[in-house]
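can u pls check wat happens w/ cytidine-5'-monophosphate
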Amino acid sequence: MAPVTVRVPAKVNLQLSVGPERPDGYHELVTVFHAVSLFDEVTAAPSDELRITVEGEGAAEVPLDDGNLAMRAARLLAAEVGIDPRAHLHIRKGIPVAGGMAGGSADAAAALVACDELWHAGLPAERLHLLAAELGSDVPFALIGGTAIGTGRGERLTPALARGRYHWVFALADKGLSTPAVYRECDRLRAGQASPPVVSEALMTALRSGDPSALGRALCNDLQPAALSLRPHLRLVLEAGEEAGALGGIVSGSGPTCAFLARDEAHALDIAVALSSSGVCRTVRCAHGPVPGARMVRR
Ligand code: C5P
C-alpha cells in the first residue's frame, strides 16, 4: 500500500445569507462557495493505528485527536466500509487555520478521498458526499470545488454558472475566530429578525458575465457584522483593501480572513503590496478561483 496524497482548496463565500436558526442548532443558509488556490495536502500512509501529524503555518493550533475533522473523516469512512481505521494522515497546511476558509473541512474532504484510495474502498462519489455532509456543512463543497450554490446548512450543492477566473488577495489575521461564536453573535445582533435567505440575482448575473467589477459589487456576507463586532480591527483591514483599489472586499465566511477581489493578477499583486505595507494584517496571500475540489496528486 503506497502513500496517497490529495490536494484540496480553501473556499471563500461570495454570498453568505444566513436565515433563522433551525431546531438542530444550525442556520438555514443560501451561500455561494468559490474554491481558491490556497491548498492543503493530506497524505494517507499505511500505519498500525490512526494518527495525525501536521506541518506548515498554524500547525501548532491544529488538534491531533478527534477534534481534527480529518481524523473523524477517516473513522467514519472505515466504519462505512467495515474495516479498522489504520492510517497515518499527514497534513501540510497552506489554508489559514481557523480563518473562515474551511481549512478543517478541506482536510476532512481530502482525508475521505485519500483513505478511500489507500484502503481500496472504492466508494462512489454520492456516498462520499453523504459522509462529507455528516462531517460538516462545508465538507461536501471541498470535495467538488469550483463555484457552487449551497443550501440547507450549506451541504446541498448545485454548481453555479460561472465564467472567468478571478484574482483574490487574502488578508490573514493573527488569531482565528470560532465559527459557532460568530453565528451566536449574528443571532444576538439580529435579535431573531432573520428572514429566509435567497440567492442574490446580482451575484448570479455577475458570475454569468465573468465581470470582476460586477462581482466585486455583489459580494455579501451576513456574518460580516458579527465578525466585525467580535473583532472591530477587521474594519481597518476592509478599509485598507478598499483604499488599495480592490473591486470588492469582504470577511471570508466567519472570518477573520478578509478577501479582496482584483481586476487581474497584476492588480492583485498591487493590492497585496499595499495591504502588507499598511500593517493591518499578519500576512497576505494571492490566489485565483475557481479551482477543482479534493484531487489525488501522488500515489
Ligand atoms: O457544520 P460545521 O460543524 O462545520 O459547523 C460549525 C458550526 O457553525 C456549527 O456548530 C454551528 O454553530 C455553525 N453553523 C450554523 N449553521 C450552519 C453552518 C454552521 O450555525 N448552516
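The pocket of cytidine-5'-monophosphate is lined by residues 26-27, 29, 136-138, 153-154, 179-180, 183 (CB under 6 Å).
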